[in-house]
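Protocol step 4 of 6: structure prediction from sequence.
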Amino acid sequence: MLSISLKEVTNRLDIDNPWWHGKSAIEEGWPKRAYFPKFYALAAGRSVKRATIMMGPRRVGKTVMLLQTVMELIHNGVVPAKNILFVSMDAPVYVGLSLEQMVSLFTEHNSHTSSETCYVFFDEIQYLKDWEIHLKDLVDRYPHIKFIASGSAAAALKLKSRESGAGRFTDFMLPPLTFAEFVHFSEKDHLIVESDTSPTQDYATDIHALNRVFIEYLNFGGYPEVVLNKDIRDKNKRYIKQDIIDKVLLRDLPSLYGINDIQELNRLFTVLAYNTGNEVSLEGLSKDSNVSKPQLKKYLEYLEAAFLIVTVTKLNESGKHFKRQRQFKVYLTNPSMRAALFSPITEDDEGIGALTETAIFCQWFHSPEMENIHYARWKGGEVDLVKLDNALKPVWAYEIKWSDRYFDQPQKLSSLVTFSKKGKLSKVGCSTKTKSGIKTTNGVDIAFFPASLHCYQVARRVTAGDN
């Protein structure tokens, strides 16, 4: 049987590292994500001897950000171009090679000394068995090399990173595009103007124009290539369904967790995607998907590990956790997955409310504050989004609507008023389709704001770390 020759490996390294020959790694004009400055600071920093691990779902721009980091290191003169190695671990030519063999080939190929400052990037590192053990060893043995890695199985990578890389790895999560990034990538920034006059908004806008962009985000947002490439957007259903969802459900998760009944997992995900933003229970899901409850729990963990869904727990009317969580909400981490599985929506479709709620929750998924975000439901009432403080007390709450009806009739928000009074909240609100302002009902001041603009604001604040 023929084996891959050393010459073939080094030839592929030359192709994967065009900067060694004075060429660029990425297309001119490809925009940087809002998360790039934070990631670059971690990747370039050498004050702490740690590897940087970028995690995130498929097709959110991890490889592009790694290559942008390479070019930034070269542009800033941090190290010479030949001191940077980039390896795509899913390339067949590298099968059977260890991380250390890669480093040895790199240093020999470019004649580096044993103390020369270098940067090594391993893309899609989850394809290497026991990667975390090997990478930790490299961090310890090569203090002059900064190691950066990426992977798509977010939670699985994070678990291994914490277990085996304690004190040696720094995790960085790259989520799907936020709505603010979608606006920027779509070249619609002119729709947003900072405002000092509105009591409920940081920005003013042509709300009808922004709503049209928001509908596009619900249908096509989340993945940079879909936004930037018209051909891909025209084939959005195939791209997201086949290139992203199917590869996760049919390849990544079965290989990681030894799943035998792939169709069972696929059936469950379809049910969850259709019901994004709705309350579900294990009993109900078991009936709808024909999957046993013990197996359901495992599948939910796997789908969260792949960053396809997020589950949100319930509070009572006083903002307290239930001792037993029989019901919970499930959200897609990107609303456009629902459109790809079923069909795009318009602003008047029945499902627009649930997708609007999903989109706003999606912005919070990017924040460490997400663990403090819940919903409240009790007999006769519900509040869509509640944030707790570190003492587990409600600090604010609001309803997510795609309608101006509640602005005109705020008395219909009786559940929000009840929750506000029981929790003694000073900050409650309700999203609308187009209207904004403050209305008082039953002694409670309610801030109203357009859902699309609020989604943009949350994205900007979360990205900036101002939660």
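Step 5 (inspection) to follow. The chain has a mean pLDDT of 89.
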